[in-house]
Amino acid sequence: MTRFEIVASIGLTLTLVVGGCAPVTAPATVPQERPGAQQDHAVHFKQLLDDEWQWVLREFPALATYVGDTRYDDRLTDLSLEAIARRKEHARDLVRRLDAIDRSRLGEHDRLNYDLFRRATVEDVEGEAFPSEVFQISQRGGVYSQMVSLAQSIPKFRAKNYDDFIQRLRGVPRLVDQTIVLLRKGAESGVTPPRVTMRDVEELIRNHISDDPMRTPIFTTLFDDLPPSISAEDADRLRRETAAVIRAEVVPAYRRLLDFYLSEYYPRTRQTIGMSALPEGAAWYAYRVRQMTTTDRSPDEIHRLGLEEVARIRAAMETVKGETGFRGSLDEFFVFLRTDPRFFFTEKEALLAAYRDIAKRIDPGLVRLFGTLPRQPYGVLPIPAHSEKTQTTAYYSAGSAAGGRPGIFYANTYDLKSRPKWEMEALTLHEAVPGHHLQISLAQELPELPEFRRFGGFTAFVEGWGLYAESLGPELGMYQDPYSKFGQLTYEMWRAVRLVVDTGIHSKGWSRDRAIDYFRSNAGKSEHDIIVEIDRYIVTPAQALAYKLGELKIKELRAYATTALGDRFDVREFHDLVLGGGAIPLSTLDARVREWVDGKRGARSS
Prior knowledge:
Layout: H1 3-10, H2 37-59, H3 61-67, H4 81-99, H5 108-127, E1 137-138, E2 141-142, H6 143-153, H7 159-170, H8 172-188, H9 201-206, H10 217-222, H11 232-265, H12 281-293, H13 299-324, H14 330-339, H15 348-362, E3 378-382, E4 394-397, E5 407-411, H16 424-431, H17 436-444, H18 451-454, H19 459-471, H20 482-507, H21 512-522, H22 527-539, H23 545-565, H24 571-579, H25 586-605
């Protein structure tokens, strides 16, 4: 399954995240040739990128919707075995077409685009060795929740936007049938999610089934903000037609999915949890590690790094614990933070209001750290009730200026006793600003970049930036009390723990209980959050490794630039440089920063 197919079929994350494992080639010396020849090569390469982007939008209509292209808003992705095979052949053919291009005759900017695009394409081809397309549902989403994600994402300006969505709803039965074929294929070959992570999926599917179509999440999400530009007559018609399609076509398809899940699929899910237990599982996990981290670090190396980071952060926690006046052990402090009523809201709206207040307190300070800020607005909303139980503490959903959709920081209001106040500043810095919203929106607004870089990115950069953004809290006036400081350390520890437990589960044979116990003993996160997180690592191997590795690289480069440039170091210029190339591999970022430092040194000496 390609990076596009994952995003378009699951519909959980609105950020297109690509990875890569083929090395980015060093810039080649461009030979002398006739004037204008380089421009000819650039035009040819640009045409290839443009053609491929159009192909992607046609193949994955949900992705087109997410980026604001409405031409395919009446379609769903074809997940038939034939379509998947055709896409795999397309990726192989694309590598051949790229290899036919003489990279040395491209300009410097296009050589980088070529390297990144080829890297991602080669990675797609390498990933064909592993049947990832059979993983179509989990506790984090799937075909049963995709239409709600789309209902949140479509433009809502005219009646046609809703008519197009109704056409999409008519395609749900086919999509469900295609999903069942893929799930059955996985079950027959022993490639399924671990059973323990699927315990709530029955409930999640049932959340989308109702005898009253107007009470389904699809209907309520679609019509919760009907614009005044739509006439009362059209509004009434659209509601009636949507309800009719949900009743006659969508709900029966979901019932069929539920019957299949209960009678055939769930009983065949596996008892093991590690990816190493799957056919070719060790190689599959190694591929995922390279893909998500954009490094060549082995699982063993990452595990050792995680242990070192846990020890370092634990020592810092002891110091901050002392600032609170708490006299017990660190483990006792964790219990105190998880249970004392002073740290929790009792009303969901109060929690959301506090997040919005934090976001607005951060906003004015951004100009001290960034020379360029995005135009795209963002908001704070609760994670929808139909999925909140199994979702993480929060997530970010990218906006689209073309689609009339702001960025959204979704905060989880399920089980308020597991949502402590002391974690809120760090979480807002990560998911909103200066984290995901700022970085992703700026990338979308870089007109000189091709679309695959504006709307795509490498996970280690995207999540590494989000974690690095948490560390900017003191420079933005956050973490003024020791509990919020401890919250920041808890979140950093959370990502360090991931290095240990993810590699432990998928490479070292750790049990789920061992992973939960390790997490519990090193972080103040609530029990509910810990279990949700461990189950997330089980079903998305290696993705969680990206955060800490990306953050460490950005911090390393900032320290290097600060030392090398001395009083000439400008943090705003540094941040603009880091974000100004979109989400790139860590090795490419390293080269970009070092070239910038060398340039500033040269300017001084001249």
